């Protein structure tokens, strides 16, 4: 968990909060669109502003709606962000000027204990001058005039933030000695992404893990839009504390059904989250079973070389549980034939049952995904594999396989050297890959095999 000071950005919808968030973190992490209400869950990132380091939170647009409605649940997330922040940036739209909702937010902020800095966004040119003057009536002093889109006014924002979040830094970065030659550190946070179709219970599962309503949930499909990363410490059944970075993603529907631009952005963000993750959990809905879209989502994770676990949620309300489980496992074996023996687990986000098992398997899977086998041990296994099942001789000409080496980890990649390897059948390559998984401790993680032939000095 980060010990940096926390800055929350708040304001009504469409004033530019996510644009400023992206500007401060230096990446386009938050989805941005012209329409209001894009951001729903609060999103966090490490920010840097003229050398000032802090943790910034992007929040949903504050709306005065019933607490049980989706905007009301979004407002509760914003209120939680302000409560944990060291300082809040209250953003208004300088071009539009003050609206009644700005004044409602100001009244609420005056009752909170968190210091507030007023920020007038979209203040480039003369169009924002009247809005800046109007904002003085809110009672938070002179506003910081800036343009989040163009990067203007950031020095003034730095000067306003400095008294609230200045912190001492000893200048010494921690040295972690538990990192191997591939950069793998078993004590580093496990990057665990939860993916699946809409309404499978991804956000509910993460909330159950955290023990708080950190993510917005509800009966509406497609609530989650941004991929939200949350740092958490899991205490395993043995009492050991292990760091996890949980990544919630937007539900992914069939491509033909995705027409809205914002949903396309959400799906692209979910696919980017898969790239960032180490282990991916495909969450299925026990009340709906396995569908072809689930296989497509799983294949996307495997194509990126990520370790995959399948978890069946809502198991507490599943009917014909035994036949359902066996049917899903068989369908996975048929639909994802490139991976045999993939972990299939049952969980309940509503009760928390199965979550410890899921996390235990996730850590074990990451360890296998990061495993490196020495060349000596690898080739002793390789010689036995060839002896047990020699490669074929297409056209009567023998394929000679010389040796095998592991080129990389995360995912594990192997290079096979030999002559005429371009004619090695796919079935024999699959035989070697399945043997590597089964005999060398790689389990069901994706293993990649590259074929190399020595260069012929007479070949021009």
Q: Any overview of this molecule?
A:
This protein has 460 residues and is of the alpha/beta class. It has helices at 17-25, 70-84, 100-110, 129-135, 154-165, 202-210, 261-276, 292-303, 321-335, 355-369, 375-388, 426-439, and strands at 6-10, 43-49, 52-58, 87-93, 116-121, 144-145, 190-195, 228-235, 241-248, 279-285, 307-313, 344-346, 400-408, 413-419, 448-452. The model has no long low-confidence stretch (mean pLDDT 89).
Summarize the structure.
This protein is an alpha/beta fold and 460 residues long.
Layout of strands and helices, then pairs:
Layout: E1 6-10, H1 17-25, E2 43-49, E3 52-58, H2 70-84, E4 87-93, H3 100-110, E5 116-121, H4 129-135, E6 144-145, H5 154-165, E7 190-195, H6 202-210, E8 228-235, E9 241-248, H7 261-276, E10 279-285, H8 292-303, E11 307-313, H9 321-335, E12 344-346, H10 355-369, H11 375-388, E13 400-408, E14 413-419, H12 426-439, E15 448-452
Parallel strand pairs: 1-3, 1-4, 4-5, 5-6, 7-9, 7-10, 10-11, 11-12, 14-15
Antiparallel strand pairs: 2-3, 8-9, 13-14
Features of the shown structure:
alpha/beta, GMP Synthetase, Chain A, domain 3, six-stranded mixed sheet, 460 residues, Rossmann fold
- Outline, from the CA principal axes? elongated
In angstroms, what separates the terminal alpha carbons?
58 Å
Radius of gyration: 26 Å
- Beta-strand residue percentage: 15-25%
CATH superfamily of the largest domain: P-loop containing nucleotide triphosphate hydrolases
- Largest β sheet strand count, sense and barrel closure: 6 strands, mixed
Unreliable spans are none
Query: Which strand order spans the largest sheet, edge to edge or round the barrel?
Result: 2-3-1-4-5-6
Order of helices and strands: EHEEHEHEHEHEHEEHEHEHEHHEEHE
CATH classification, class level of the largest domain: Alpha Beta
Count of distinct structural domains: 3
Helix proportion range = 25-40%
Mean pLDDT level: 89
CATH architecture descriptor name of the largest domain: 3-Layer(aba) Sandwich
